[in-house]
Design a protein that fits this description.
The protein is globular. Helices cover about 70% and strands about 0% of the residues. The protein is mostly helical and about 230 residues long. Pfam families: UreF (PF01730). Required for maturation of urease via the functional incorporation of the urease nickel metallocenter. Belongs to the UreF family.
Amino acid sequence: MSTDAMAGLPAQEDLALLGLLQLVSPALPIGAFAWSQGLESAFELGWVTREQELGEWIDGVLEDGLGRCELPLLVRLQQAWAEGDAAALDEWDGWLKATRETAELSDEDARLGAALLRLLRSLELEPPVALMPQAPGYVTVFAWVAHQRGVPPRQTLIGFAWAWLENQLAVACKAMPLGHTAAQRLTEQLRPRVVEIVAQALERLDGELGPILPGLALASAQHETQYSRLFRS
C-alpha cells in the first residue's frame, strides 16, 4: 500500500468520527432537548427524587429499553441502508413505530425523524427516495446518516446511547433539579454500562427484540395530562 493510501485511512476514520460527533451533538437543530421520554413525569409522580434513583431509572431504561429496541434496530437499519434493502427498511421502521406505547413517545420519534430529515435536505444529504420508508422515524434517519458518514455500527450505537444519556441528564438538571456535578458523577457511573449494553445489543437476535418498560409507559401516559410541565414527553 502506498504512503498516500495509508495516510488516507486515518483521515476517513477521522471524518467518520467527526460526522458521528456532529450527529449526536446537543447543538444539532432537531429539538431533541424538548423531550424527556417520561422522565419529567417520573419526577412529578415521586418515583425519582434523588441522584441514586435517577441513576437506577436511567440504567433500567438503557438496559430494558435502548438495549432491546433502538440499539439493535440501529444495527439492522444501518445494514439495510448499506445493502439498499427497501423492504427491510420499511419493515424495521414500522416495527419500531409499533413499539411506541404512548402518543407522546410516538410523536417524539416522528417529529425528531422529520426534523433530522429536513436538516439533511438542507445539507443535500437526504436518503434516496426509492429506499426511504414513508415518514421515517428518528432511529431510521439516524441510521442513514451513520451509514452515509461511514461510521462503524458499534460506534453508531455508542453515539446514539451517549446522546440519549446526555439528554436524560440535561432533563434532570432542569426538572429534578440535579446539579451539574451530580450529573457528571452519574455520567462516570453509567459510561461502562453504555459500553456493556451496546455489546449486548450487537448480539441480540430478532426474537429477543422489544422494550420491557411498563413503568416508563405509565409515566409517559401520565405526562400527557400532567398539569405543569417543561417537556413535550
